[in-house]
C-alpha cells in the first residue's frame, strides 16, 4: 500500500509525467486511473498495477458497468485531502464487504481513480 502511495505522489508531482506534456504543463481533460489486474490468486498474491491517463468517457463507460452490476463504486473523501487515506478507506470497505459476503470478487480487473471517482470490481 505504501509503494502504491509513493507512485501516486510521483504522478501528482509530475515526476512520473502522465498528467503533463513534454513542457511539464498539466494536460487538461485527463485523469490518472490505476488498474489492478492479472491476479495470481487474491489480494494477497501478486498482481499487476498499471497507471493510465484517461478522458471523461472512461468514467462514463465505468458508470454504465456499475449500473449493470459488473463493478461497484466507492467514493471516499478525507477532510485533509490525503489521497492515501481515501484509498485505504475504500479498500478496507472492499475487504470488509468481501469478508461479510456482501460482494464476491473475481480478481480480474479493478480500477481506482484518486482524482474524481473510485471504482472497484467485484
Can you walk me through this structure?
- With 122 residues, the protein is of the alpha+beta class.
- The radius of gyration is 15 Å and the shape is globular.
- The two termini are 20 Å apart.
- The protein has a 3-stranded antiparallel β-sheet with strand order 2-1-4. Strands 3-5 form a two-stranded antiparallel sheet.
- It has one domain.
- The C terminus is likely disordered.
- Helices cover 35% and strands 20% of the residues.
- The chain has 3 helices and 5 strands.
**Alpha plus pi helix count:** 3
Domain count: the total is 1
End-to-end separation in angstroms reads 20 Å
Radius of gyration: 15 Å
Helix/strand/pairing category: alpha+beta
- As an assembly, this protein is single chain
Strand order in the largest sheet: 2-1-4
Largest sheet: 3 strands, antiparallel
Low-confidence stretches: 116-122
Q: What is the global morphology?
A: globular
SSE pattern, N- to C-terminal: HEEHEHEE
- How many runs of DSSP E, i.e. beta strands? 5
The average pLDDT score comes to: 84
Helix content: 25-40%
Strand content: 15-25%
Amino acid at each position: 500500500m505504501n509503494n502504491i502511495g509513493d507512485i501516486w505522489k510521483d504522478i501528482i508531482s509530475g515526476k512520473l509525467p502522465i498528467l503533463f506534456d513534454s513542457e511539464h504543463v498539466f494536460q487538461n481533460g485527463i485523469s490518472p486511473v490505476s488498474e489492478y489486474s492479472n491476479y495470481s490468486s487474491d489480494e494477497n498474491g501478486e498482481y499487476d498495477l498499471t497507471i493510465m491517463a484517461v478522458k471523461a468517457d472512461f468514467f462514463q463507460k465505468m458508470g454504465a458497468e456499475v449500473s449493470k452490476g459488473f463493478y461497484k463504486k466507492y467514493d471516499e473523501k478525507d477532510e485533509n485531502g490525503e489521497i492515501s487515506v481515501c484509498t485505504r478507506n475504500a479498500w478496507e470497505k472492499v475487504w470488509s464487504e468481501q469478508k461479510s459476503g456482501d460482494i464476491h470478487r473475481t480478481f480480474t480487473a479493478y480500477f481506482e481513480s484518486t482524482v474524481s471517482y473510485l471504482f472497484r470490481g467485484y
